[in-house]
Every structure is written in structure tokens, then in C-alpha cells.
Amino acid sequence: DNPLSGYASYYSKSDETALPGYYGVVLKTHRTKVELTASDRVAFHRYTFPKNVEKYVMINLKDANGDDRPTDTFLEQVNDTTVSGYRCSSGWSKQQQIYFTAVFSEPIRLALFHDSIPVQGNVLQGIDVKGNVIVASDVEKLDVKVGISPVSMENAAANIRQEIADWNFERVVDETTAKWNAELSKLQVSITDTVAKRIFYTALYHAFIQPAMFNDCNKEYRGTDKNVYGDPGFTNYTVFSLWDTYRAAHPLYTLVQPERVPDFINSMLAIYEQQGRLPVWHLYGSDTNEMIGIQSVPVIADAILKNMKGFNYERAYQAMKASMMSDYKGLSYVTKLEYIPADKEKESVAKGLEYAIADWGVAQVARK
To answer: Looking at the structure, do residues 54 and 137 belong to the same domain, yes or no?
Structure first.
């Protein structure tokens, strides 16, 4: 009796295709082929349905992975082919805000629900909003362009108009594939072992999917302080998994993606000015404060010592120094005692090592 039940589906790995720039799978239960590609800020979906059956695409703004939980959700049918909404949530990353607009290639009707309870009308707000996008039973192919934005639903729609103005799915696949091939071919491996080669390029692909662009086509973005900023003169980024990336990934970026490094660091310096400390583990506009140490410090130090251009060294040095002189997770003990007491802070030995690395970076920059 639940109108939202029955969305799960079996699938087989033999019916799945996963490539940089394209994903496809057949949902066996619903006999529906799903294909996905994307530009920088717009996802492009293609659904190929069986003939003469009911067709739905559910927009679920309630459920998510892990401990992420919605704090405010909104969904609206704008016209007969357009749906807009937003999802605010909290969890590992606090105060996440993501806005979207979805444009469909066929006329639709939106059925709204508070979780599984039907609600009349074409606009709904709450913490558990879901929507059934319903298309005519004779529609066999449905394309959907979904623009996202950290700022507004209007910006999400503008991103669609800017990046994917037409309905040429194959062109977007080709363009995105070409972008990925250009990046992945920066390191070329000549080996006969195809399995090892696949592993290498898969690892390189994983290394290149973060940090993630976090602005709109007009360069607006939402800062860590949740204010909206205009064009800052650089591309704003988020998803700085610095505990995981400062040792190897970021030094790799300085070698094979040097054009992105100044934007990474300018994003970090903006975060410093907005929250009073350089990022620790920055995720979708909020710092999770996860892990020990402030690993953005050695990242910035490495870039300065390699003479990377495109950001202000003095501004960076002052941000590094102020962050390391803060009280973040045991730093005050280092300042006063030159060590972190094990009975005062968890993982004090590991923290001491991370702070020593960061302090070394600050000292090298100061010496430079």
C-alpha cells in the first residue's frame, strides 16, 4: 500500500559499465536501463523504460548514507518539465546546503510526500520531503539534466543553461571522457599487464576526483561562514581530505595538476578567513574537524617551497602561523610544554608527529 515502495532493484555486474565520464546499468527488477554522465556542475541522466508500464523517478531528500540527517528539505514543481529543491543536512559535516534544479525531456507530474504520506499541491517543505516524478506510460526514453549549486536553485538552473544547453547525451559523454583522458594521460605507463595498468589508472582517477569544485558558473559560492560570496578571483574548492592526501596526493597535484594548486590554496586561505583556522577536513562548505593536526599547513608549505605561484605567500604564512598557534586539539600543550600529555589528549604521540611535520613546514616557509 506504500506508494513509494518497490524502488529497489536487482542488477548484475555483467550489465554494469563504469568508466570515467559514464556509468550505465540495467535495473533488472524494473527492466530499465540507467545511464549517467556529467559536466562540471550538471548531472545528465538517461532512463530507457520498457513499453506501456507505469514510470516513476523518485527524488528522495530524506535518506542519506552514514550519520547525515536532513534539517530542512524542499521540493517544488516549477513547470511541466522542471523541478527545483534543496537539502540542508547535518552529520559528519555540519550545516551542509545543496540546491538543485532538474529539467526533464518529457512532461512530468510531481507527487509529493512527507516520507510516505501523500501531500497535495506542487510545493512541499519539511525534513522528510520525497517526490515521485511521474511520466506518461508511453514514454520509452527520459532524459534529465540536474544542476546543483551551493548557493541557490536559480544558480543551479543557470548552471544547466551554461554547461548543457541541449539534450545531446552522447556529446556530453564524449566531452567528459575527453577531459578525463587528458588528465589521466599526464602519466603514461607502458606495461603488458592489463590488470596492473587498470589498477594504476583507477587509482589515478580516484586521486583526481577530489578536491571538488564548489562554486557556480558565475563563480558565486557559499563560504564556511555560510555567507554567499561573489567571484573571488579563483575557483573555490571543497572536500579537502587532508589527513589522507597531504603526504602524497597534494605533492602529486603540484607535479601533474599545477594549474589547480593555487585555487586549492586560495580556497584554504578563504576558509581560514571565514572560520579563523586553516581547514582540517573540509567537506561541502563545513569543516568536520576530523583527524588530528592541521594538514593544510604542510600542503601550503610544500607549494611555497616548490615556488608555486598564484597566491600570496605572506598571507599564506600568516594563516599557517596563526593556525599552528591556535588551541586546536592539543596545540596549546605544544606551545606551552613542547609535547602533548597522553592523559590530556587522545592519540598524543600521533598528534605530536603531525604537529612536528606542520611546524617544520611553517619554519621552512619562515626561513624562505
So the answer is: yes
